[in-house]
Amino acid sequence: MKFFLRIACVTAIAIMPFAATAQVTSPPVGTAGMRDLSPWSMFMSADILVKAVMVSLAFASLVTWTIFLAKTLQLFVARRRVKGALARIAQTRTLSEAQLAFGKPGNVVATLLWAAITELRMSTDTLAEGGIKERAESRFTEILRAEGRVARIGMGLLATIGSTSPFVGLFGTVWGIMNSFIGISKAQTTNLAVVAPGIAEALLATAIGLVAAIPAVIFYNHFARGSKNYLELVSRASGAVGRLLSRDLDRANGGMLAHAAE
Is 254 inside any structural domain? Predict the structure, then answer.
């Protein structure tokens, strides 16, 4: 009997380290039901306010890419039209020839041309060449300003998204972390399995904010350069139309002087 008791004691002593190891390494209760930390599951389990922040930032990102596609197409088509119009103007000698080449106003260069022709027709009873050019330049300036406003459509929204999205995402993060700390205090535990999901959900809002802000800033700078280059082309077209107007005035004044000399 004593022999068996000794064997039992030795066996118990030998098993104790393994039992302790199993207790330490065994998964905690509820590990099998740990929360999925994929972006979608974090969004679905987030607080309603954090969800609203994420949805608004996702919508802002969608708006950013929509503006990018629309303005890329807009500037491409506009630059192509102006370059083609400049090539046609270079082959004409008078405003009448240019009018026949363009027809009705369909782009900004044709609009500049018709503004010069209109001013010339309205000033047929005057001989002040400088006044005609000054009034034509005034018309050209108004057209250039209007074209600049059209070229900058959407850029203000890009600037707003790029500057505010990180702070909106940060607001969602702060709110989510605050809720996580409240949950930690209620659970009275600092276990990482309890702390991590809430903090991850909060940080997701900041990540979405950066996803919305970074492309918006890049696109804004890109379109700022593109709009500037386009307006420089329009300014060149304005100068070309002004030169045609000046030639017509010189021819008219030359013809009047020749008729007076006769």
Answer: yes
